[in-house]
Amino acid sequence: MKSKKVDFYPKSFIVPAIAIYGVFFILPTLVGFGFSFTNWNSDNLTNWFAIKYNGIDNFKYLFENENFNLALYNTVFFALVTTFLKTVIGLLLALGLNQPLATKSLLRGVFYVPNIISIIVIGLLFSSIFSMTGMFNQLLESIGLSRLAETNWLGDPDTAFGTVIAMEVWKASGFSMIIFLAGLQGIPRELYEAATIDGADGLKKFRNITLPMLAPAFTIAITIALISGFKVFDQVYVLTNGHSDTEVINTFIFRAFSAEQYGRASAMNMILFLCIAIVNLLVITFLRKKEVEL
Amino acid sequence: MIAGKRGRIILLEVAMVIISLIVIIPLLVMLLGSFKTAHEASYFNLKLPSEWHFDNYKKVFEDGKLDIALMNSTIITVMSSCITVISSALAAFTISRKKGKAYNVLFALFSLGMIAPFMVVPTISLLKLLDLSGTYSGVILVSIATSVPWSVMIFTGFIKGVPREMDEAAIIDGCGPYKMFFKVILPLLQPVLVTNLLIITVGVWNEFMIPLYLFNSASQTTMPLTVYNFFGQYANQWNLVFADLVMTALPVTLLYILFQRYIVAGLTSGAVKG
């Protein structure tokens, strides 16, 4: 006799999430990939059948376009440099605030707060700080660097992108810090005690216990920083709007969108996706291998 | 030796406090500036306002139509984060309990959502086709779709640590699948649920790109969008701009201060170990 078996992990549980995600994320992503090989523009925005295939024209145009190449270069540079700085600073903050300091809870909160605030808010705040008469130049002036204090940090092509990077690192290092703190708290104290008995000094303990035990935290912190770094948009949009040689892929997409070059905008999205996918695949494979080795 | 160690701790403490000023001072300039006159605020310094101008906030609310933006942001944020968290907890539960290739594929599909960039044009075109263009539902559905992958990931990591014996006990006690999930599993997920809710809420509240592209009339502005419009309108009145910035940052900051211990706890138990 066959009794009706109840499925305690019903497939229906997955339906709401996958339905919304499928229709409003996966579908547009696939459509975008397909239409990046077309002349999609404002005439046929919603008439998907009228769109004409034009091969790799969009890609050819983009890779021959100097401004797009700069945007691509800037995006990769931004992702790599901010990831490196966020990881190092986040780790140092976490190590410091993992010590028995009286103010550690308060300081953890303080360093995390910029993460909570919209980049738009922080961007405008920073555009005041780095304006000609802003706080940063006042500070330089007061410590005697008056020549530097005349820099237009966001207007000068030599410094604008560095200022955008500084803001991102200021904002997001606290996130890496939290990931590393969580990792540090997961390291059993016995390991350090045993090492002390074996006569290991601080540096040795750090190299042989702390770093290897933090390997999963490194993987998470670096992966998340890389992904968000490649997707940079708000930071540039609010600080420089892509002027002063700070164009990134997403601001370029915004411009192509405004110019109603939808096929081209989709092609850029596809290039961005490939960049993220390839870099992340490389990094994750490398870090996971390291995790095992350690 | 002991004194040496304590000395080092005190030194570290002083150093960390000084470093934290890099974070505190800009935020303080913004907060103090929001109570100053336009002239005083333009010095961007830490001086206390000579007279506290609380009316800056009144002006920002009236001229900047912040009441509408606040309401829009609240509706979008509450709807998106609640639906995201519940639907992804359900999905993560079945995905992490079931075995089989199909479920690995599903998990990979959700992971893809974390790296794939938001496809602006096809999304707009799709919303137009579905007649959802420029509506709350459109923005909410897209916000859910972009938040679900992260949420599923954090839940899956956590649920793997919840013993199956819990499910079995509930089944023996005569629960059906729905009762088991909502009465037994969901309460166990509470710490990660709160973390998730906070992270998604903050993310949706602060989201700039989605409403920028998908909303197009003045009555459909959200708090982060007011910041930009407001700056264009009052470029030289930093006191008013600062007041708007504070109003945009305040709700999520308060939420964070109230629940901050959950964030660390949730990340520890979910993300890092998962």
Automatic annotation (TrEMBL), chain A:
It is found in: Cell membrane. The chain crosses the membrane at residues 12-35, 71-97, 109-130, 160-184, 213-233, 267-287. Residues 72-283 form the ABC transmembrane type-1 domain. CDD domains: TM_PBP2 (cd06261). GO terms for biological process: transmembrane transport. Its main location: membrane. Gene3D superfamilies: MetI-like. It is a multi-pass membrane protein. One of its GO terms (cellular component) is plasma membrane. It comes from the Bacteria. Pfam families: BPD_transp_1. Keywords: Cell membrane, Membrane, Transmembrane, Transmembrane helix, Transport. Belongs to the binding-protein-dependent transport system permease family. This is Sugar ABC transporter permease.
Automatic annotation (TrEMBL), chain B:
SUPFAM superfamilies: MetI-like. The chain crosses the membrane at residues 12-35, 68-93, 105-127, 139-159, 180-205, 238-259. Keywords: Cell membrane, Membrane, Transmembrane, Transmembrane helix, Transport. One of its GO terms (cellular component) is plasma membrane. The keyword Transmembrane helix applies. It is found in: Cell membrane. It is a multi-pass membrane protein. GO terms for biological process: transmembrane transport. CDD domains: TM_PBP2 (cd06261). The keyword Protein biosynthesis does not apply. Pfam families: BPD_transp_1. InterPro entries: MetI-like, MetI-like_sf. Gene3D superfamilies: MetI-like. It comes from the Bacteria. Belongs to the binding-protein-dependent transport system permease family. PANTHER family: ABC TRANSPORTER PERMEASE PROTEIN MG189-RELATED, ABC TRANSPORTER PERMEASE PROTEIN MG189-RELATED-RELATED. This is Carbohydrate ABC transporter permease. It comes from Cohnella herbarum. The lineage of its organism: Bacteria, Bacillati, Bacillota, Bacilli, Bacillales.
